[in-house]
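Q: Given only this backbone (57 positions), what sequence would you predict?
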């Protein structure tokens, strides 16, 4: 069975890849922006997950 975090990281990677290619022209800039976006997506997901943890279903 596939882990939810692995699927989230895979989705965040591909979204970051597409946005970086669309928004920047130079490969170095694309790599930098893609890495920053990937880190931001993963950090936001973890932080929001912990913030929603104590909320009742």
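A: Predicted residues:
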């Amino acid at each position: 069975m596939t882990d939810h975090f692995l699927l989230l990281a895979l989705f965040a990677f591909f979204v970051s890849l597409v946005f970086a290619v669309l928004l920047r022209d130079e490969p170095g800039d694309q790599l930098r922006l893609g890495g920053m976006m990937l880190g931001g997506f993963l950090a936001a997901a973890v932080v929001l997950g912990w913030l929603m943890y104590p909320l009742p279903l």
